[in-house]
Each structure stands twice: as structure tokens, then as C-alpha cells.
Amino acid sequence: MKFSKTLINWYSINKRDLPWRKTTNPYYIWLSEIILQQTQVKQGLPYYDAFTAKYPTVFDLANANESAVLKLWQGLGYYSRARNLHATAKHIAFDLGGKFPNTYKDLLKLKGVGDYTASAIASICFNEVTAVVDGNVYRVLSRYFGISTAINSTPGAKEFKQLAQKLIDTKQPAEFNQAIMEFGATQCKPKNPDCDTCPFNSSCIALSKNTISELPVKIKAAKAKKKHFNFLVFISEDEKTIIEQRQGKGIWQNLYQFPLIETEKATNFKSFKSLIKDHELLTNQDFELLLYNKEAVVHKLSHQHLYTHFWIIKVDKLPINGINIENVRDFPVPILIGDFIERFNF
């Protein structure tokens, strides 16, 4: 089909030199795809390099402890990806003898692997004719064919998958999939796409109808919830502090943080000091309270915005066992906490 041939020809000339394009080893392809989920290449590349250097095989990753994996992942966000990455590595290493499933259908059974990732691995590593559909692909197809079906709807997901499957080059599935993703990332960009040099500019419906900025269509997500986080940063006379591991299935699962108090709204110094007097870590304890940041640090997650203050609590002795301040950087923490640690310079 002319579309696929034009696309692959464009790719052969314009593709970026990226390390995962020099291999068909499913471990490296899987690793790159998991890292690049919801992450741009320029941000994900250093993490890919770090992971392949520290864990050159799936067995190395499987034998790592989770805290080490989370620490290396720190800053990428969506930490469930890292936990799934580690769990799947253990499954492949210990249950499958280090061999990745070699079909789209079986790849889908892996934890953390969905339609897109399974299609990418199956086509690139095993030459299976299964089309990838990610944000870049949605954008290219919706604009070129003038499709206004919402991409984050069930009908939209089905329509675009079927269309991509119809267009894929059956003789070069890996090249086609990488080409359409690259085209969306560097040519048919979300903003200011380079339509003047686009090989499809004479047949693109969105360009002809001046609807480039309107496509793809996406149903607006619910408004993000606003939360107020107050972290208690203990500092004792013997230079120790308290950090604790988050439990449960919420955000930052298994990462570490300073003791947290969540309030319904922003609080001032006087109110907060009164509030924490009865905190279990400060009962019958003399302490000096300092507010580190007067303006809240706003940390935006997909479904919630965290308005965060760090409160420095100086005590003679910690009320519970803590860690030496010099070791605080050894623990995997959310980027919000990591940024504070760097700024505060323990």
C-alpha cells in the first residue's frame, strides 16, 4: 500500500539513532518500551542506558531487590511500571527459563504488558504482523484520515487498531511500526507539526480541512483532585532523620517518604504547630518547628495535584529508630521528595 511504503521510506531517511533500534533482543526491546510508556525519548534514554548497564540481562534484573530497581527508576514517575517490570523479569527468568514469549497473544499475558507493548515486541523481535497503536499513531492516523472518534473511548481504540492493522506492511511489520511511531514523534508532532515537508501533505485530510489542531479528539478527564501534603522532616542532635515506606496500592507504593500529615486545606504555621502537638511521634516531646517552603510545592499527577509543604522538626532525640542523615539518598523516593533532599542538602 502506498501509505506504508511512503512511511517506511521517510523512516529510512529520518529515523533517529537510538540504541534499542540496533537489536532485536526481546529483553532490550521490552525494557525500552516499558521505560518509554508515558515518557519522551529524551527523558527515557538515560534510564534505558542506566538499566542496561546495571542489569544487562533479564536474570540480572530478576535477581535485583525491588528497592534497587525503584531507586534506579526514580524520577520517571508511574512507579507501577517499575514494579511490574521487576515482577515480569522474575517470571521470565525463573518460570520461563529466561525466554520471552514469542507471540503477541502470549506477550499480553505478561504483567505490565498491554496491546501496544505486546505488538511492539512481537513485531520487532519476532516479525509478527501486529500493529502498534500509541499516542503517536493515534495522532498520525486521526489527522491523515480525518477521524474524529475519541481516541480514549472503546470505539476509538477498536477503530484505530483495525485501521493500523489494515495499513501495516505485512513484509516489514517491524519497520512499519517503528516508522509510524517515529513519524508521530518527530514530524506529525502534537504542536507545530512540520506539514510543509510532510510526505503526506497532498493527501492529509486534516491539513486540507485546517483541522490539524483539533485532532486527535480526546474525551476530557475528570478534574484532578487537590490534596495538601505536609511532610515532617525530623532532624535530631545526632544527625538522624525518619523515613518510612509507603504501603497499600495508592501512589508511590513501596517508595520511601518522610512522615506525612495530609490536611483538608492549606494550614498556617500556628495551626500546624498546634495540630502536630498530639502526633504520635511528638507526644511529650520538645521540638523546634520550622517551615522550609512558604509557598507550596505543586506536584501534578494524572488524577491529583499535591500542594506540599516540608516542615523541619528539630529534636534532641528521635522518638523511634531512624537513619543517619547521610544515608537518606540511598532510599528510593518519589521525585517530589528527591528534589527536596537535593535542595535541602542534608
Structure, described:
- With 346 residues, the chain is α+β, with helices and mostly antiparallel strands.
- The chain folds into two domains: 213 residues, Hypothetical protein, domain 2 (Endonuclease III, domain 1, Orthogonal Bundle), CATH 1.10.340; 120 residues, Nucleoside Triphosphate Pyrophosphohydrolase (Alpha-Beta Complex).
- Helices cover 42% and strands 13% of the residues.
- The strands form three sheets. Strands 1, 5, 6, 7 and 8 form a five-stranded mixed beta sheet that branches.
- Helix 1 packs across helix 11 and helix 9 packs across helix 11.
- The N and C termini lie far apart (61 Å).
CATH topology of the largest domain: Endonuclease III, domain 1
- Give the oligomer, counting copies of the same chain as homo and different chains as hetero: single chain
Overall pLDDT metric: 95
CATH architecture of the largest domain: Orthogonal Bundle
- What is the terminal separation in angstroms? 61 Å
Instruction: Please state the structural category.
Output: alpha+beta
EC number: 3.2.2.31
Catalytic activity: Hydrolyzes free adenine bases from 7,8-dihydro-8-oxoguanine:adenine mismatched double-stranded DNA, leaving an apurinic site
GO molecular function: purine-specific mismatch base pair DNA N-glycosylase activity
Domain HhH-GPD: 35-186
Question: In a nutshell, what does this entry contain?
Answer:
The protein is α+β, with helices and mostly antiparallel strands and 346 residues long. It is 42% helix and 13% strand. It has two domains: 2-214, Orthogonal Bundle (Endonuclease III, domain 1), CATH 1.10.340.30; 225-344, Nucleoside Triphosphate Pyrophosphohydrolase (Alpha-Beta Complex).
